[in-house]
Amino acid sequence: DKVISQPGQVQLGGERRVISVLFADMRGFTPLSEILSPEALLELLNQHFALLGQVITQAGGEITNYAGDMVMAVFNGHNDQPDHASRAVLAGLEIQRALKLLETQPLMGLPFIFDFGVGINCGEAVVGYLGCDSRLEYTAIGEMVNIASRLSGHAAGGQVLLTRAVYEKIAAQFSSLDLGQVSLRGHSESVWVYQAQTDSTD
Question: Strands 160-163 and 115-132: what pairing?
């Protein structure tokens, strides 16, 4: 809506903002891609991403990227959301709850249900438009985004993992389990990680 209402004002580049970033990474995609036709695989992916997209947008997140078996979403990007960390955690937990419901009522008659690992981080990043004049993509760039991505890859199916920065913002609202320091692939320093729990104290 912002792009349409302000033609000519959307340009390459970005601004520094404190945001929350959520990555949801699918489990079991590669083995299944070896046995399913591309058409069936695409339909299966759309089944899951439609569900995730609905959950994320209802929580106020902006989906910035689909990449194969992964989805990325930003909170507090275009619009000011003081509770962006809580919104991201709520979305992560709702993703896992919705996927469990999907197991009992698969969409489109497809029997396969993928598990997702979710990673969430918050902090300062550059948010803006990447690409060229004819093809722009809204995204967020920074080390905190990389950590969120690595965290989702570390998460087991069904887990919602948080950094300490997120935990400190949502501790009074959501229950969580302290997992201690974790070494993430491609990141030189260990990260203190928490697992969000499904029972909310709010």
Answer: parallel
- What ranges in 59-128 are assigned the alpha helix state H? 84-104
Among 30, 24, 32, 76, which Cα is nearest to 52's? Answer: 24
What residue type is assigned to position 96 of the chain? Answer: Q
* pLDDT of 11 over the 70 cut: no
Is it the case that residue 4 has pLDDT exceeding 60? no
- Which of helix, strand or coil describes residue 62? strand
pLDDT at site 129? 84
Amino acid in the structure at residue 140: A
pLDDT at 118 over 80: yes
Q: Judge residue 63's burial from the number of C-beta atoms within 10 Å of its C-beta, 0-12 exposed, 13-18 middle, 19 or more buried.
A: middle
